[in-house]
Automatic annotation (TrEMBL):
Pfam family, one: Aminotran_1_2
Cofactor(s) listed in the protein's UniProt record: pyridoxal 5'-phosphate
Protein name: Histidinol-phosphate aminotransferase
GO BP annotations listed: L-histidine biosynthetic process
Originating species: Streptomyces aurantiacus JA 4570
Gene label: hisC
Modification N6-(pyridoxal phosphate)lysine occurs at: 231
CDD domains noted in UniProt: AAT_like
PROSITE patterns per record: AA_TRANSFER_CLASS_2 (PS00599)
Entry EC number(s): 2.6.1.9
């Protein structure tokens, strides 16, 4: 029985033969593969988390605030202060990572008999979570330079009339941003085809040269902007994602959320992190400078680089990207092979980590010549 496999079990048909999300977690000196923030939380914040969690621990015999009111209020303040658009508690919802936000959105607006579209290559979990929620997945088009052609994308929306549209900006794994005009064009196309929900995934927006698309929420009740504390806030281990949308959307996702899904410990930790927003965003400007340095140096070495508004950079082209990935790993640096033919992705790390990465790819380039 020890060789019993997933497909020997009575799993749902759409899960047969599929693999789980699996970025390698390898123990190597330089890990630049999952778009994490390389800076540990500052000691003053670690202390504040301990304080807040100690206080929360005194009440762990009780369920947490099911509606996470204080946390959503603070998140709304953060968005209002930085996003160029006023939102309040009623516009904001939070969950365990933006992956759970996306799952709740698909449970609410997708599901069996319904479809969602994303413009690929893009964040692979959109399609995987669609599958997990029984939502049909449609792979929409991108240009060869990884930009979205608004007309081709609008045509794909008109032809398929999806229930949910994902637009990731800045996009993962390619790094480039999508303009407000394109998002508006796709929103309009999606409303004309079928009143559908348009999710703008802004997981990396704090690293962008441009502004958040939050102001587009005005007058667009089917638009959702999703965010996370995993990247700019340097708190991937916390698991806290959130969305901003019309209050009716916030009410609707509560139909599918599990009661008390955000633990009291999570809420206390996130609140402590939000008290230190300005310090944490200070790391963002350092990372943006390092990201720009990576782009410049990779180009100087002779690589093709996709324009980046994120905390990572897509570079190529390789005849065999996986082979190149392996050779960079042999030099102690873990980058990401997202399966985009010819391209790899590197997350901006500390200056020393980025130097180690640049040394590794310089050596690789010499070997290739
Ligand atoms: N959206 C995008 C575009 C991402 O790249 C990621 C993480 N890699 C997420 C959402 C999910 O992040 P989390 O669940 O940690 O908030």
């Amino acid at each position: 029985m020890s060789d019993l496999r997933i497909d020997d079990l009575p799993v749902r048909d759409e899960l047969r033969g599929k693999s789980p999300y699996g970025a390698p977690q390898l123990d190597v000196p330089v890990r630049l593969n999952t778009n994490e923030n390389p800076y540990p939380l500052p000691e003053a914040l670690v202390e504040r988390i301990a304080e807040r969690v100690r206080e929360a621990a005194r009440h762990l015999n009780r369920y947490p605030d099911r509606d996470a009111v204080e946390l959503r209020t603070r998140l709304a303040e953060y968005l209002t202060r930085t996003g160029g658009h006023e939102v309040t508690l009623t516009n904001v919802w939070a969950a365990n990572g933006s992956n759970e936000v996306i799952q709740q959105l698909l449970q609410t607006f997708g599901g069996p008999g319904r479809t969602a579209i994303g413009f690929e290559p893009s964040y692979s979990m959109h399609g995987l979570i669609a599958r997990g929620t029984g939502t049909g997945w449609i792979s929409g088009p991108r240009n060869d330079d990884f930009t979205i052609d608004p007309e081709a994308a609008a045509r794909a929306i008109a032809e398929n009339a999806p229930d949910v549209v994902f637009i990731t900006t800045p996009n993962n794994p390619t790094g480039n941003a999508v303009s407000a005009e394109t998002v508006v064009a796709l929103y309009d196309a999606a409303q004309a085809a079928k009143p559908s929900i348009v999710v703008v995934d802004e997981a990396y927006v704090e690293f962008s040269h441009g502004a958040s698309l939050l102001p587009l929420l005005a007058g667009r009740p089917h638009l959702v902007v999703s965010r996370t504390m995993s990247k700019a806030f340097g708190a991937a281990g916390l698991r806290l994602g959130y969305l901003a949308a019309h209050p009716a959307v916030v009410d609707a996702v509560q139909l599918v959320r599990l009661p008390y899904h955000l633990s009291a410990v999570t809420q206390a930790t996130a609140l402590a992190a939000l008290e230190h927003t300005d310090t944490l965003l200070g790391y963002v400007s350092r990372l943006k400078a390092e990201r720009d340095r990576l782009v410049d140096e990779l180009r100087a070495i002779g690589f093709d680089v996709t324009e980046s508004d994120a905390n990572f950079v897509q570079f190529g082209r390789f005849a065999d990207a996986h082979e190149a990935w392996r050779k960079i790993l042999d030099r102690g640096v873990l980058v990401r092979d997202n399966g985009v033919p010819g391209w790899l992705r590197v997350t901006a790390g500390t200056p020393a980590e980025n130097d180690a990465f640049l040394d590794a790819v310089r050596a690789l380039k010499k070997e290739q010549l």
